[in-house]
């Protein structure tokens, strides 16, 4: 491996504001009155609820089975009673609701039976399934399921642990590395074995000297050949592609992932969670959350998943002029629409904001195409062009300019002299494009189904017609075989409509039948009855002779014959 | 004189043959314009435009028999796209063909359904399953919200329910510039 470091394009150096929260050690947050555990921990996937209201749950008991390929399990963060399973607002910019399991803790913290997982004795797939069942996801904020990221198992040369933590204010990874370096490295060794990498590098920004020292000590003690590499502090050096670039020199092109180039990247928090899951059999129940900003007592807290943010914020004692709370960092985070939302696996930081601390941005001015944004863009895009396309809703063009390479780091908006909220435009464009793609695939499906339905109806019609024709041909053949009176008639008039011939044939048959059939109720009659019948017949004959309508019989026959033909063609 | 005539006639024959060959060799099956129009239409197959499906409407637009503002599910945005494609002026949706509504799906009240199969026959995308005298149900992801099944139902058990926004379908809003009071 190359010893030198590389540079990525652009980047900015905002004020770090790390000291506020990095001084105090991690404290354990007290049990809240209620835990609201969302079954959906990220926008990607959800879990199926497997508990009922009123059920007693133990700490670490699975309450949500993973759904789909990207799903991971969800667990009860403490022991207690399920008091409700209902939609609840989630920690998302949309303020939409998702199904949550509300648990009232009993305060006993009684664990469900759990044991270390012997990943040496298990197959790779079993180990990945175990991580999935433990609900392990990326702890850097994106909550991408780790078992999927580990999935390849081949072709990965280098495992990178991301201790960059480049966003201002956030210090949860910093504190975790200072205090639990050995656990992180143990988790990293497990990850390395599972992914089959030869090399392991931990990249830490050089504004965290204590964390670097702690990790170096732990690395020396473990003797696993882990390299701890301090990297220059330059936002966004903690971005996955940027960190890979800095440490290995590999530039990952559009549409590719680190895995395609033999590099895989995990957050230090994820490594810690993997260690707890494998070495102790503990599912992911809590995470370190930085509470900072406009507060009296900034610091890091170990918080159970599902803790309401309102309650959590009280621990840091926000100052009275706090007007909003930001989840995530000031660069990439979002203002929480409500404060009663729960902490999820991806919540790394809550910043209390005040007008003095984060002054509202000056009014947006027109773009002067100074290209400062392009100079700052770590993805080497042209934000001023993307802005223009987004603003005019010319999304096709935005995609041509690689909008989806944008990592929404906010460097462009930070340097913009016109104070344009560029990232807002990019987010808007991205979600519009996704919506259009969804609509388009739905339209394509509808078109296909509509066309198939039309085709099916045509086919059914054709099949019916073919059946009818076959039936008619069969009847004709039968008639021809029979050699009865109508046969020569059909043969005699070949030019005539076959239907007419059929009708004529049916008529003839009906007449023949009529002629053949005799009244059925005249058998076994007494002599006087017979005499009576003969008398009536004689009278009828006499009447027929006198009546002028002697040919009424064939006329009466016709409707019956038509009915017969109809019945045949219907069959 | 005669040479010039012969030369010109020869050129005409050669070019004619080349054009004739090209017409056969590079023949385009179907009307590409119809395909392009059809790609813009929302494929709801609702018939509100007065044609039996999106493709026939596309055909009619291409032939100049129908106007571009007859598709309520496509909305004003659809009209705008058609106007762009055909180089025409944008015009608002014609009211006689209906108004733009939020996207909805049909939901059958399964308690009331008598199993008459009329809705199944009406559905243009085969999104309703069921059999005679058996309860019917709508396959939600396939439903285009065309409302064609609502009218035939003899017991009025089909309702159009607007699709709720989920985290996965939620969209970031267009950045709105706040006009601040001048200090």
TrEMBL record, chain A:
Self-association state and partner proteins as the record states: The complex is composed of six subunits: RnfA, RnfB, RnfC, RnfD, RnfE and RnfG.
Family: Belongs to the 4Fe4S bacterial-type ferredoxin family. RnfC subfamily.
Enzyme's top EC category: translocase
Cofactor-binding details, from the entry: Binds 2 [4Fe-4S] clusters per subunit.
Positions bound to [4Fe-4S] cluster 2: 377, 406, 409, 412
One Pfam family from the record: Complex1_51K
Record key words, sorted: 4Fe-4S, Cell inner membrane, Cell membrane, Electron transport, Iron, Iron-sulfur, Membrane, Metal-binding, Repeat, Translocase, Transport
Xref: InterPro entries: 4Fe4S_Fe-S-bd, 4Fe4S_Fe_S_CS, Ion_transpt_RnfC/RsxC, Nuo51_FMN-bd, Nuo51_FMN-bd_sf, RnfC_N, Soluble_ligand-bd
Chief location: membrane
Domain 4Fe-4S ferredoxin-type residue range list: 357-387, 397-426
Lipid bilayer topology: Peripheral membrane protein
Chain's gene name: rsxC
EC number: 7.-.-.-
UniProt xrefs under NCBIfam families: PRK05035.1, rnfC
Start and end residues of each stretch annotated as Disordered: 477-497, 545-571
Function comment: Part of a membrane-bound complex that couples electron transfer with translocation of ions across the membrane.
Binding residues annotated for [4Fe-4S] cluster 1, in chain numbering: 367, 370, 373, 416
Name used for this protein in its record: Ion-translocating oxidoreductase complex subunit C
Stored SUPFAM superfamilies: alpha-helical ferredoxin, Nqo1 FMN-binding domain-like
Locations listed in the record: Cell inner membrane
Species this chain originates from: Thauera mechernichensis
Required co-factors: [4Fe-4S] cluster
UniProtKB/TrEMBL annotation, chain B:
Cofactor note: Binds 3 [4Fe-4S] clusters.
A Pfam cross-reference name: FeS
PROSITE patterns: 4FE4S, 4FE4S_FER_1, 4FE4S_FER_2
Keyword Transit peptide: no
Residue numbers binding [4Fe-4S] cluster 3: 123, 143, 146, 149
Residues binding [4Fe-4S] cluster 1, per UniProt: 46, 49, 54, 71
Residues annotated as binding [4Fe-4S] cluster 2: 113, 116, 119, 153
Places the protein is found: Cell inner membrane
Tree of life domain: Bacteria
Region named Hydrophobic: 1-23
Keyword hit for Disulfide bond: no
Cofactor: [4Fe-4S] cluster
Keywords: 4Fe-4S, Cell inner membrane, Cell membrane, Electron transport, Iron, Iron-sulfur, Membrane, Metal-binding, Repeat, Translocase, Transport
Main location: membrane
EC number from the UniProt entry: 7.-.-.-
Domain 4Fe-4S ferredoxin-type: 104-133, 135-163
Domain 4Fe-4S: 29-88
InterPro entries referenced in this protein's UniProt entry, alphabetically: 4Fe-4S_dom, 4Fe4S_Fe-S-bd, 4Fe4S_Fe_S_CS, Elect_transpt_cplx_RnfB/RsxB, RnfB/RsxB_Proteobac, RnfB_subfamily
Known function: Part of a membrane-bound complex that couples electron transfer with translocation of ions across the membrane.
UniProt similarity note: Belongs to the 4Fe4S bacterial-type ferredoxin family. RnfB subfamily.
Subunit structure: The complex is composed of six subunits: RnfA, RnfB, RnfC, RnfD, RnfE and RnfG.
Protein name: Ion-translocating oxidoreductase complex subunit B
Underlying gene: rsxB
């Amino acid at each position: 491996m190359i010893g030198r470091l590389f540079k990525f394009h652009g980047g900015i150096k905002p004020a770090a504001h790390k000291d506020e929260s990095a001084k105090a050690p991690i404290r354990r947050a007290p049990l809240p009155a209620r835990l609201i555990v969302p079954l959906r921990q990220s926008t990607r996937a959800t879990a199926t609820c497997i508990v009922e209201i009123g059920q007693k749950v133990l700490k670490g008991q699975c309450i949500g089975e993973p759904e789909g390929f990207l799903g991971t399990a969800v667990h009860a963060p403490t022991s207690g009673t399920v008091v409700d399973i209902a939609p609840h607002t989630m920690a998302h910019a949309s303020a939409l609701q998702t199904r949550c399991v509300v648990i009232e803790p009993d305060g006993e913290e009684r664990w469900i039976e759990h044991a270390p997982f012997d990943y040496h004795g298990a197959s790779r797939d079993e180990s990945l399934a175990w991580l999935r069942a433990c609900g392990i996801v990326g702890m850097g904020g994106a909550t991408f399921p780790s078992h999927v990221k580990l999935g390849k198992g081949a072709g990965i040369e280098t495992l990178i642990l991301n201790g960059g933590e480049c966003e201002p204010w956030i210090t949860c990874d910093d504190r975790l590395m200072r205090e639990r370096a050995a656990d992180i490295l143990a988790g990293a060794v497990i990850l390395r074995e599972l992914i089959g990498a030869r090399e392991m590098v931990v990249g830490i920004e050089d504004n965290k000297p204590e964390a670097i020292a702690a990790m170096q000590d732990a690395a020396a003690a473990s003797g696993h050949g882990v390299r701890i590499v301090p990297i220059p502090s330059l936002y966004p050096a903690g971005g996955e592609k940027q960190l890979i670039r800095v440490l290995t020199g590999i530039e990952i092109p559009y549409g590719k992932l680190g895995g395609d180039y033999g590099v895989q990247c995990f957050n230090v928090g994820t490594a810690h969670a993997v260690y707890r899951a494998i070495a102790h059999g503990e599912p992911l129940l809590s995470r370190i959350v930085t509470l900072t900003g406009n507060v009296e007592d900034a610091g890091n807290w170990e918080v159970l998943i599902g803790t309401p943010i309102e309650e959590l914020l009280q621990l840091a004692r926000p100052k009275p002029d706090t007007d909003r709370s930001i989840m995530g960092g000031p660069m990439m985070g979002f203002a929480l629409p409500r404060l009663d939302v729960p902490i999820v696996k991806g919540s790394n930081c809550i910043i209390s904001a005040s007008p003095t601390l984060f002054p509202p941005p000056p009014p947006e001015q027109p773009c002067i195409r100074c290209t400062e944004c392009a100079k700052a863009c770590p993805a080497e895009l042209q934000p001023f062009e993307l802005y223009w396309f987004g603003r005019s809703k010319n999304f096709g063009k935005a995609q041509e300019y690689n909008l989806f390479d944008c990592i929404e780091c906010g460097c462009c908006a930070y340097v913009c002299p016109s104070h344009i909220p560029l990232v807002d435009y990019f987010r808007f464009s991205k979600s519009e494009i996704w919506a259009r793609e969804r609509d388009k695939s739905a339209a394509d499906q509808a078109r296909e189904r509509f066309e198939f339905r039309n085709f099916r109806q045509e086919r059914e019609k054709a099949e019916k017609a073919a059946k009818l024709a076959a039936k008619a041909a069969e009847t004709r053949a039968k008639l021809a075989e029979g050699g009865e009176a109508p046969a020569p008639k059909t043969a005699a008039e070949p030019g005539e409509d076959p239907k007419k011939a059929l009708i004529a044939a049916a008529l003839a048959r009906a007449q023949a039948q009529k002629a053949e059939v005799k009244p059925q109720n005249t058998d076994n009659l007494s002599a006087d009855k017979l005499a009576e019948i003969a008398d009536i017949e004689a009278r009828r004959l006499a009447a027929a002779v006198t009546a002028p309508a002697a040919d009424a019989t064939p006329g009466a026959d016709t409707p019956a014959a038509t009915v017969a033909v109809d019945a045949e063609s219907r069959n | 004189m005669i040479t010039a005539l012969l030369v010109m006639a020869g050129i005409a024959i050669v070019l004619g043959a080349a054009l004739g060959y090209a017409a056969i060799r590079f023949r385009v099956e179907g009307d590409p314009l119809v395909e392009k129009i059809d790609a813009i239409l929302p494929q709801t197959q609702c018939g509100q435009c007065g044609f039996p499906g999106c493709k026939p409407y596309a055909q009619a637009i291409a032939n100049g028999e129908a106007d571009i503002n007859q598709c309520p599910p496509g909305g004003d945005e659809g009209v705008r796209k058609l106007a762009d494609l055909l180089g025409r002026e944008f015009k608002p949706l014609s009211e006689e063909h209906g108004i733009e509504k939020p996207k909805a799906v049909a939901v059958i009240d399964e308690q009331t359904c008598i199993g008459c199969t009329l809705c199944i026959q009406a559905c243009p995308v085969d999104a309703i399953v069921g059999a005679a005298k058996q309860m019917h149900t709508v396959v939600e992801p396939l439903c285009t919200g065309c409302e064609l099944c609502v009218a035939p139902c003899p017991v009025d058990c089909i309702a159009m329910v607007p699709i709720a926004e989920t985290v996965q379908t939620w969209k970031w809003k267009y950045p709105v510039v706040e006009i601040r009071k001048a200090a």
